Each structure stands twice: as structure tokens, then as C-alpha cells.
Amino acid sequence: MEVYIGVLLLQIFFLPHFISCDGNLSELVFPSNFLFGTASSAYQYEGGYLSDGKGFNNWDAYSHQPGNLIVDGSNGDIAVDHYHRYSEDVGLMHSLGVNSYRFSISWARILPKGRFGEINEAGIEFYNNLIDALLIKGIQPFVTLTHFDFPQELEDRYGSWMSPQSQEDFAYFADVCFKSFGDRVKYWATFNEPDYQVKFGYLTGTFPPSRCSRPFGNCTDGDSEKEPFVAAHNIILAHIAAVHIYRTKYQETQGGSIGIVLQCTWYEPISDSIADKLAVERAHAFTFNWFLEPIIFGRYPPEMRNILGSILPEFTATEKQKLNKGVDFIGVNHYTSYYVQDCMFSVCEPGFGTSKTEGFWAQSSEKNGTPIGEPVSNLNGELVWQNAYPQGLDKILTYLKDKYHNIPMFITENGYGNMNKADSTTEELLHDAKRAEYIAAYLGALSTAIRKGANVKGYFAWSLLDNFEWNNGYTIQFGLYHVDHETLTRTPKLSATWYRNFLAEHSKVQYQQQPKDANNSPFYY
Ligand code: NOJ
Questions:
Q1: I need a surface site. Which of 40, 141, 454, 488 has the fewest CB within 10 A?
Q2: Shortest CA distance to 267 belongs to which of 334, 338, 335?
Q3: Which residue minimizes the CA distance to atom 7 of ligand 1?
């Protein structure tokens, strides 16, 4: 193990090309109050299924349903047992030297029946304990209100995100959280990757509530060409309701900030043709701009309005007013980049993005047989969906900076997935030099973007621990720590050691001078 670490540190500190964009570590630029952390989510980490009064949620329902699409037949009933082991996990974070932890709240643990039942005090106590344990170690909580999970009650009563009632439920839940935890939590995100939440939940039907229509998926009910837009509309209005509550009731006294986390894959045109360049604009519109443009500018992206017409719900005049400048920061989840090709004027093989209601574009990891960046694969060469293309992070941050007036941004997730095959040995899984290389290279690209003026305030590696990866169950792992799913023992991988060394080094060479053009007011624009 020591030999590997030695080789890795040698590579990182003495081979400038290794950190592709910025030369060596001491040249990386991060403002002095930058948050460095690891990220997680409730369903993927906590376990504690129905423990201490927690209610049944949508992922409990889905993962327990025979015939679901979780590849290894697993679920998050135990996950990595963070509910019982949070203290140990905070200790691991402290030993890494991070100053922040992004986690989400299990809505059903706090409100087992949404606004239709009592608050579960044991749930409040769990998050109080977690928050206090973090703060004692100097680790700032960065809280996502919901990361794909919500009480099943809301699905059973009124079809969750298909009904405007969901806005009321979310606003109520947010209020309970601000009231209970806002004295200590200064960073709030409302939703995580809502585009995937609605695409998987209502277009392909591969996430709960498994609604879709053919040819997009095989569900008993749903309409893949309409429902994603209704669900997204309710999510946008639920976001804005929570922001309104925070700003009017809590922000002044609690002094925190509130934003939303988007799935920010970077897309590049596969050719110089105007058609492919416009397809890239549509790809951006139908993923993150779908949410950001309404929340910041009060309207859906023109690329969506042009294609979807009346399928896209309308905002009322009052809603538009509330939507104006409806975030203090943008949370950027970034893992990979793709080439994009036009499917509006050319015929494409049916696939993700190609249909009319997805925006008429096709994504590809390679151009003329050459991958956009090194493909992420396991030892047997099986591909995960990622290609390491660190420049993509610089490009997306520069794009968001220019489009949204340099609103503060956080990299709320970035990480490297490897396949945990039945025949992978623990030894192999622990020697994850590729993960460390990936994170180093992306930190280099992040530093480049900051140098060029992007107002980025923090970076969270996904993830502290190997965990439950949704439809991939436990077969794809992103942890800096390996988790033995029999014993739940956590063991640091090479990447954990690398991150710890990086953070120690960073604190020594902390950047002294503010990057040019950065907006110095911390949260408002
Ligand atoms: C983003 C999601 O927010 C997270 O839940 C997931 O585990 C990672 N991507 C890796 O796929």
C-alpha cells in the first residue's frame, strides 16, 4: 500500500502533466474560505429502514417491489448504516481534513406522512446529533432537503410531483427543516438533479414512481411525453416556495444561503456544423437550463418552448415574479462530458435525448472512434457511463458564469465510479489510483475556471463511502472509503489518502490573493 501511495504522490507533486490544466498542486487556486468536503444522500447512506418512527418512502416502495430495475436486487434498507454509524463517519471526515459535509434529509424520517401526520421527533434528533457532531469537528453541514426520496404517502394520496399539492408538502417540510436546523445549517439546497428525477421517474420509468409510456419504457401507466414536464413544473414551484419561506422567515436571522443542485454534464458539438451547435444548446436546455432559467429568469428556455409549445406548463404572473432570482447559488454536479449531434435535421438512432420531447439530440462519448476523455472502466474493461474529461468542468463553469451573471457556485458532486464485480478483490478496490488521478485532474480544471473568474465557493467529492447507487445497487462504487457490505467496515482507499494529503497541502499553500473578476459578495448577485 505504501509503495502505491508513494508512487501516486510522486506523480501528483512532480509530474506537472498529471494535473492536466494547472501544473502542480501549489499552483492551484482556491479562495481561502473555500469549502472542501464529501457528499452523500439519505437513501444511499442511512439505512435505518423504518427505524425509530421513520415513514415508508418512495425508494422503500420501489426497491421492495418485485420486478424493479435494481440490477443486483438490493435496496437501501441498511445501505452503509450511516444512521447508526454517523459518529464514526464524521470521524473519518475529520481525519481527511474536510471542512464541509453535504448530506440530505430523509423527508419520511422527519415527516413519515408528509404534512398529513406528526413530526417524528426521533428523526429531528438524528439530524441534530449529526449536525452537532459535524460542527464540533469544524465541519460545516451543507444540506440538501430532498435527494430523490419523499414519503410514499404523497404518492399514494395525490400522485406526488404530478399534483400541485406536492408544492405545499415540500414547503411545509422545508419550513420544518429551517426551523429545526437553520440555527446551525448555513447552506441549503432544495432538490438534487431534478432533471434526472423526472426523466427516470416519468420518462423511462426506471425510478419510482415508474411511470412512462412506450417506446420510452415499459410501465403500467404514464405519459413519457407529458408527465416529466408537469412533475418538473411542480418541482420548480416547490423550490421557489421553499426559497420564499427561507428568505421571508429565516434568512435574515439565520444568515444562510439557499440554492438548488443540478446535473451539469458538459456537451460539445460533434462537428462545427450549425445544426450540431444548436443541438448542444438544446441538450443544455433540456437538462440544467430547464430548471435554472425559470428559477433565475422566470421562464423556460426558448429551446424548450419552441419545441414543446403547449406541452410545457405556463407560469402565472405571480409565479414569474417569485421566480425572479430564486437562488443564492447553483449546485453543480459534474461527472462527465459528451459529444452531441443534431437529430432535428438528421436522422438519429433512437436513444437518450433523440426524441422530440427530449430535444432532438444524441450524445456520444466518442468522435470518429476517439473517446472525448479516458473511459472509466473496471479491471475487466467494462464501461461505466463516465469519461474523464476535466476540461469539461472548466467549460461548464465558464458557461454557467457567463449565462447566470456569475452567481456563486458549488461543485456539489464530482467523483469516479468503478464497477464492483463479484470477482474484484478488496485489494484491487483499495488501490484506486485512477480515482485519485481523476479527482486531481478535475481539481486542476476547477482551479483554472476559478482563475478565469468563476465564482466557485466549494468542492464536494462524491463520495466519502461506497454506497447504494440507485439502479446499479452496490455494483458501482464511488467511495474514497471501501465499505464491506457484510461487516460494514470502512477502509480507506488510496484516493482517501490522496485527498487527505491534498487537503493538508492546500491548507499550507492557501491562496492569498482573490482570483480576478470573482464576485466578492458571498451570496448575492
Ligand atoms: C449524482 C447523484 O446525485 C448521486 O445520487 C449519484 O450517486 C451520483 N450521481 C453518481 O451516479
A1: 488
A2: 338
A3: 469
